[in-house]
Design goal:
Blueprint: E1 3-4, H1 7-11, E2 52-53, E3 81-82, H2 102-106, E4 123-126, E5 129-133, E6 136-149, E7 156-165, E8 173-178, E9 184-186, E10 201-202, E11 206-216, E12 222-232, E13 242-248, E14 251-263
Parallel strand pairs: 1-2, 3-13
Antiparallel strand pairs: 4-5, 6-10, 6-14, 7-8, 7-9, 7-11, 11-12, 13-14
């Protein structure tokens, strides 16, 4: 299966529209060794690298933002780099479902089914038992944070979803999927509790980040973020966490991730059989 041409390579070309807002790099582009990482769901697949075709198209202009109403920030704060949006990729106006671009067909964007949890296919067997999996490139998701809210909204009821698509199985791999009937209460600076991903996110090629999150109100819901973006494997920060900011109509969300080379996936199960009093537990894994 062919992999589409990555969006970040396209951004290097002259004449391609991108945001003109000043951005500051959050972390170095050097490649220090990764000594620890959070556990990920079981299963490890090693897809074959394939030729890249069909360039993505970048949105011709930055999204509408309530900039004048966003709370003032400390001048010493470091603002994460913006996560660029792909053109014709909004849920609210339905443009994301129109198969006008090859990447929409390749990643089956109109298919709203959730990814399956496949059995590993790259096992190294010994006497009929899987004893090893081959390392691969993965995208580790560390956190989602409500970075900014317009005006003086204070606490809001937030719902919607953030999901990823990769070429191993382009169906939706949810980080969060919150019903409007059961929103979460958050405020500016709050972490958004993640319930996914369901499986590891393959990063041989380009992974898409799809998002549609809204603030529930009694007089019409407010669109927080809406669109689809790409994270590529060709260049950028590797083996170190970095943060990208997704700007929306009335706020922004930070997503902290890491591109990890030679990665393996594992699930660690911690069982607390009995607690006599207050307990504090820290579990870490060093590879």
């Amino acid at each position: 299966m062919q992999i589409p041409h990555p969006i970040l390579r396209l951004l290097r070309r002259p004449g391609v529209a991108a945001s003109h807002h000043p951005m500051h790099r959050l972390s170095s582009t050097s490649h220090p060794a990764l000594t620890s990482m959070a556990s990920a769901p079981p299963c490890l697949l090693t897809p074959t690298l394939a030729p890249r075709v069909s360039p993505f198209i970048v949105a011709p202009s930055p999204p509408v933002r309530c900039v004048s109403q966003i709370a003032a920030k400390d001048p010493d704060d470091v603002i994460p780099m913006e996560l660029e949006k792909l053109a014709k990729g909004r849920h609210r106006d339905g443009s994301i479902y129109r198969a006008s671009h090859s990447w929409k067909r390749y990643y089956k964007v109109a298919d709203r089914n959730e990814t399956r949890l496949p059995d590993p296919t790259d096992c190294v067997f010994y006497d009929g038992t899987c004893i090893r999996h081959i390392p691969t490139r993965l995208l580790q998701i560390f956190s989602l944070k409500l970075a900014e809210l317009s005006g003086n909204l204070g606490s809001v009821e937030l719902y919607g979803n953030v999901a990823l698509r990769d070429h191993m199985d382009p169906l939706l791999n949810y980080l969060v999927n919150i019903s409007r009937n059961d929103p979460i209460i958050v405020k500016q600076g709050s972490l958004i509790n993640m319930t996914g991903p369901k499986r590891g996110i393959d990063l041989y090629g380009t992974a898409l980040v799809e998002y549609d999150m809204r603030c529930k109100t009694t007089c019409g819901d407010l669109q927080l973020i809406d669109g689809i973006s790409a994270i590529d494997d060709l260049w950028g920060t590797w083996n170190r966490a970095f943060t990208k900011r997704v700007y929306g109509d009335c706020g922004s969300v930070d997503i902290t991730v890491s591109r990890i080379d030679d990665a393996v996936q594992a699930t660690i199960e911690v069982v607390i059989s009995e607690v006599q009093s207050t307990v504090s537990i820290c579990v870490s894994l060093v590879l």
